[in-house]
Amino acid sequence: MSKSQLRASQILTTFGPGALMDLPDTSVIIGGLDHWLYPGNTSPLIDEPRLVAKVRARLDNPLLTLRRPPVEQTDPHGPKSGITAWEFPQWFLVQDPIKTPEGTQRRLVHQSRLTSGKFKDAGKNFEVVPVRFVRACENGHIDDLDWSGYAHHYGKSCAGQLYIEEVGTTGEISNIRIRCACGEFRPLSQAAQKGTKSLGKCTGKRPWLGNFSTEPCTCWSRLLIRSASNAYFPQILSVISIPDNRSELDEAVGTLWEAHFSTVTSEQDLAYERKKAPVQAALGGYSNSDILASIERIRQGIKAAVEIPVKDAEFEVFNEAKPELGADVPEGVFYARTLPATKWNQPAPNGKPGVMDSVEKVVLIHRMREVVALLGFTRFESLGTDVNGELPDELNLPVQPATLALNPTWLPAIESRGEGIFIVLKGKTVEEWAATPHIQQRGRKLLDGFTQWQNAHANKSRKFPGIQYYMLHTLSHSLMTAITLDCGYPASSIRERIYCMPGTLEKPGRYGLLLHTSSNDAEGTLGGLVEAGRRIHHFFRRALELAQLCSNDPVCAHHIPDHHDPSPLLGAACHGCMLIPETSCEQRNDFLDRSLIVPTLEQIGVEFFGNHHA
């Protein structure tokens, strides 16, 4: 295989190992971690204990670390670094269309027949483009089609010239045929039919891992358009760095954890490690008993980080924020200030309850860090995180995540800086609202829609999030839309994080939302969101006003999930009102219903802010 070096931008979400990418003159598949080159002996590790503990438990590898992607060196005399990409697919179409009575056909040639990237025939050089069809399976394997075998129905071996014939001008699969010079042909649409076995058994090829990486596979191959959105779904896990209240000793032990203390269980083990220069320099003044106690505290903390859902730990810290939390220093990873209630809980001028009477707390996050790790990837179906920020159980799923390396010892991760607004709703108020008969009836209709979707997507990992999540999620989208118009950030730069842990009337749950920016550079901390947070009362009122009407009303307002509904996961929500850029939404614009936050034209009386929108 040929290879080329790529820059390490947008690694996790678009160009991770196994992703397909078009270059100006060819198409490539991004190489696995074994082919990511770092200059010299550099080891750009990322320290985020909660996330490290999660990925180690998930992949059952206690030695995994997180590492920043390599950056290509510009010095031609320096060590090579960057990300390797392998040419894929290896079949090309000759850009010399041949007219036929029914349409046009182009020659299909293998890479071995090219010279300097061109196809030579009769003394002429013809440009070629990579074929856009490949085959893959539910385990992430990918390979070229056996074009000759497919055209001949796998009945005979033929060395005739192959053609892709297009009938008409639409380019649809139903109008494409694979034809051989011997006269045999076969419609490509047969390979696209659901449940078809026309492409044969999967070959188990993993070209992103290099040669000799094939593994056994019992799946049937499926047709895949290499540039389609379902060709690559990164499986990512993210956490927000929260303040650490550890002592100076714990901090020192933590910095040496991976290299020296992760396997220490006795005083003898510790005595051996203390002979090493780095340990002696950092902990020379502490006793063995103190250090062992610190090691145990950190070990228990790591264990707790695995057991506690990602969002639970974050909510507890944000919700318990004192007037100030963290350090307001340029290198700090977290700094937040609680906004006094007198700044945002203002009564309505007409004597009605204030627009934010149901809000318990507003926290302005001046500095925050988000760390995102890539664990694997899938094809055909996404295995995203659930509403608690956790990855689904891999058992009994229609697809399985593919590995990033033959024997991974590290995972790629990125850290982003930003700012945000954290809003907590009163748990008791939410529980009382959710317990009313009208709300429960609306919830059953939304559940029916989810069941309909689930029946059409067998074995999908998603679960019904509950009526409270629908309400919080819709409020988040409406707030983002209102704030985007004023804060200076484009809509795609603001992201959401919904915290929905339902409870009971006796023991109310916890409900909140975080709107935040996240960027690898200074654009994530320009101050626009924090400034908007100081006027959150204005944006709250504006968000509820915007949600009352939609340009697609009355159709949007009267929509409920029904049989054969194209939007079974939505209530009163559409592109004209609640849908935002999918990069900003944690649930890909699903689970929305604006009738749950404000009165709409339908006037069904299920709104959470029914008396607060004036």
Describe what you observe in this structure.
Helices cover 24% and strands 23% of the residues. The protein is built from 14 helices and 26 strands. The chain has helices at 49-59, 147-151, 189-192, 248-255, 257-261, 267-274, 277-283, 288-307, 310-319, 427-434, 437-456, 467-487, 528-533, 536-548; strands spanning 3-6, 20-22, 27-30, 36-37, 65-67, 82-87, 91-94, 98-99, 103-110, 114-115, 118-121, 124-126, 128-130, 133-136, 142-143, 162-167, 176-180, 185-187, 222-225, 233-240, 324-326, 335-338, 359-378, 410-425, 494-501, 510-517. The strands form five sheets. Strands 5, 20, 21, 22, 23, 24, 25 and 26 form an eight-stranded mixed β-sheet that branches. Helix 1 crosses helix 8 and helix 12 packs across helix 14 (536-548).
Q: Could you give the topology of this structure?
A:
Blueprint lengths: L2 E4 L13 E3 L4 E4 L5 E2 L11 H11 L5 E3 L14 E6 L3 E4 L3 E2 L3 E8 L3 E2 L2 E4 L2 E3 L1 E3 L2 E4 L5 E2 L3 H5 L10 E6 L8 E5 L4 E3 L1 H4 L29 E4 L7 E8 L7 H8 L1 H5 L5 H8 L2 H7 L4 H20 L2 H10 L4 E3 L8 E4 L20 E20 L31 E16 L1 H8 L2 H20 L10 H21 L6 E8 L8 E8 L10 H6 L2 H13 L66
Parallel strand pairs: 5-24
Antiparallel strand pairs: 1-6, 2-3, 3-6, 4-6, 7-9, 7-13, 8-9, 9-16, 10-11, 11-12, 14-15, 14-19, 16-17, 17-18, 20-23, 21-22, 22-23, 23-24, 24-26, 25-26
Helix pairs in contact: 1-8, 4-8, 12-14
Q: Which short descriptors sum up this protein?
A:
614 residues; disordered N terminus; alpha+beta
Give me a quick take on this structure.
The chain is an alpha+beta fold and 614 residues long.
Q: Which structural category do the helix and sheet elements fall into?
A: alpha+beta
* Fraction in beta strands: 15-25%
Helix tally equals: 14
Give the rounded overall mean pLDDT: 84
Intertermini distance: 66 Å
**How much helicity do the residues have?**
10-25%
Q: Report the major sheet.
A: 8 strands, mixed
For this structure, the quaternary state is single chain
Rg, Cα atoms, Å: 28 Å
Low-confidence stretches: 1-9
Form type: globular
Say how many strands there are: 26
